[in-house]
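Hi U.,

Before I forget, here's the chain from the pilot set. I'm dumping it here mostly so it's searchable later in email.
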Amino acid sequence: MNLVVLIKIIKLHMDMKSFFAQHPVFTASEFTEYLNRGEKGNVSTRDNLLAYHVNKGQLLRIKRGLYAVIPAGMTPVDYPVDPYLLASRMADDAILAYHTALDIHAKSYSVYNQFLFLTERAIRPMSFRNYRFKAVRPPGTLLKKGKLEYGTRSMERSGLELKVTGLERTLVDLLDRPEFGGGWEEIWRSLESVEFYNIDEVVEYALLLNNATTVAKVGFFLEKNDKRFFVNQKHLKTLKERIPRKPHYMDKHLKGRLINRWNLIVPDMILEKSWSEVL
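Structure:
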């Protein structure tokens, strides 16, 4: 091996250490982009390098194309990989959402081991250790209108950027699809624990989804918390103009009562907050 080749190899490994230090979780695509930027190799080179570091215990292969860096002194078996970073890299368009968004905003009432992310890709649910990862297809209305990233935020975690729905969008999303919120008690307690919402954004997003039942749910929630979140009558009036013409169930699986002004049959447990009796 001549000196020039040796120097290139040493330089490559030094650069890789820098990459690993800045990317505790990364995809093969991100690593390829890094290699191509420095013109250090092709896909074959990438795969050989990744396989080498996996065999050395310096990388942990989570699934095809997704890796976690194992710091010195730790082993792939005992290193606690950040599940939020994993969820954010499960797809190149992943957006953390629903209960997972509450978690990362530190507003969930309970911590779950299921991690939800929005993506247009068809990705099967998978497990890693005791974590479960589930892909959710975004609302069709957003896709048609080209508004997939409406109400999302960029957040830094361990030096990496990830996308997550903001609290305003998360509020509406959870009322729209409560099956991803962990139950009504979890949803209600979590949403009411938030200190502040931009109500204009909440209303705008609720209307954007173009679902009358969801609009009614959002209106009911805001009306019940009007003083807490400084909701004014203008907001409620805007929502009332788009509610269902006939009564709709808030949850078809639960017994409830009709709230005429929203044409919404609300579960008794929500109206009475029956969960408050058991603390």
